[in-house]
Write a structure and sequence with these properties.
5-stranded antiparallel beta sheet; 2 helices; alpha+beta; elongated; about 90 residues
């Protein structure tokens, strides 16, 4: 993974779900050492959840990625079958 930084946090982990990514940022000098952001092409890093411990950040990252996966799956299931076949 390329090294990225946002607002003083080094991005250490990432899960990609469709066009959305969820990332963990880490900083040893900021009040909350960990943050989990939602990242999209058009909006960049948004909706930060700030954490004191890495394990909390990992759990939040996984929870948010799974929630997004379910949202995208539900959207896909609502499409007509022909459109679904074209996307596969």
């Amino acid at each position: 993974m390329e090294k990225h930084e946002n607002k003083g946090y080094q991005i250490t982990d990432s899960i990609q779900v469709g066009n959305t990514a969820f990332v963990i940022g880490h900083s040893e000098s900021l009040p909350y050492p960990y943050v989990v952001w939602k990242k999209t092409e058009g909006q960049g890093y948004d909706y930060g959840h700030y954490k004191n411990h890495r394990q909390e950040a990992v759990e939040d990252l996984c929870r948010r990625a799974l929630k997004e996966l379910k949202i995208q799956r539900n959207k896909e299931m609502r499409k007509p079958r022909k459109e679904q076949a074209e996307n596969e």
